[in-house]
Amino acid sequence: MKTLHFMLLRIFGMFFLIALLFFVLVLQLLDVFANLWRYLALDTPLSAVLHIAWLYLPKCISYSVAPALLFAASYCLGILYRNNELIAILGSGLSLYRLVLPLLLLGLVLSAGGFCFEETVVIDTFQAKNELYRATIKQEVSLSNTNVTVMSEDSRTIYQAEYYNDKKRSLTQVLILIRDADGSFRSRLDADWADWNGSNWVLHNGRRYLRSAQDGQIGEERIAILDDKQLSEPPATFQKTTRRIEELQAARARDWVTRLRRAGLPYREALTEYYNKFFFALNPLIVVLIASGVGGRFRKNILLMNLLASLLLTVVYYVGQMISLILAKNGMIPPLAGAGFAFVVFLSLGLALLRAART
């Protein structure tokens, strides 16, 4: 059995490396040619283009592992069947499951290793690549925001502004609602604009509605300038959300989701992407499982049919994953279900295919 497993891994490893290099090259060329007109228009030096491509290389490897595994596993089993070697192996009493067990273990190891590689290498290099790209094409990212609502950490102060100017650190058409510890109304502040003095917001040209502690009546007063130390929500909370979960490590992504929740900002999309980080890392296991379950099911055009069937199921898997993610981001299903639904379905399907495979 060790000899068979060694033979299988030797064939598989050769095709896997070839496929991995091919897919990495394709992704690099797609990125270069998609931005070639920008590079030419701005006379970008070749060294800068090569530096961007170098920083993009780890991300390309991360994307390429799953399709390379799919191609290698399908092609490897197809070759064994075409040469009648798989028939001889199965005829000797060795099941397909025991034969492909090293491939499944390799898929599991690459899933765990891929997650660690993503956390330690890919995220930092991909973020550096995006920053270098924006600097190269002179693209500025504005952090100003419109129609922004923010809740303080203790959930007792709610800010609403029509526009936040990040350069000036100012708010336009501000409404601030302050509540007591039990959630009841305490006061409301309306102002034409507010600016940040380094420690708190200063309101200009507004009104204050304050509930009396004695009779509970709400009084109104005009304010020219109000400098209240309690209005200390930092300007960064009002900035446009530009962080992408794929550019954050898992711990930082979790903290970012927590911050969005605390501030009362939409967080479902970020939470879905956070969960998807873990299920995306398991894609190598899924594609190997699918390719192993499909392997050896066709008697004619074995190599082509194995690859096409595996590719079709994998495409359905990725499309299903994309649809479930969209549903989760739009609030139709829970974030965890959106990230893991396709994985659970195709894990069950792959195990069923492998169990029903010819022995």
Spell out the blueprint of helices and strands.
Blueprint: H1 2-34, H2 36-41, H3 46-82, H4 85-91, H5 96-136, E1 145-151, E2 157-165, E3 170-179, E4 185-196, E5 201-211, E6 218-227, H6 250-262, H7 268-281, H8 283-294, H9 302-329, H10 335-355
Question: Brief overview, please?
Answer:
With 359 residues, this protein is of the alpha+beta class.
Describe this structure in words.
The protein has 359 residues and is α+β, with helices and mostly antiparallel strands. The protein has 2 domains: 2-138 and 268-355, no CATH class; 145-238, Sandwich (lipopolysaccharide transport protein A fold), CATH 2.60.450. It has helices spanning 2-34, 36-41, 46-82, 85-91, 96-136, 250-262, 268-281, 283-294, 302-329, 335-355, and strands spanning 145-151, 157-165, 170-179, 185-196, 201-211, 218-227. Strands 1-2-3-4-5-6 form a 6-stranded antiparallel sheet, with no helix packed on it. Helix 5 (96-136) crosses helix 8. The model has no long low-confidence stretch (mean pLDDT 83).
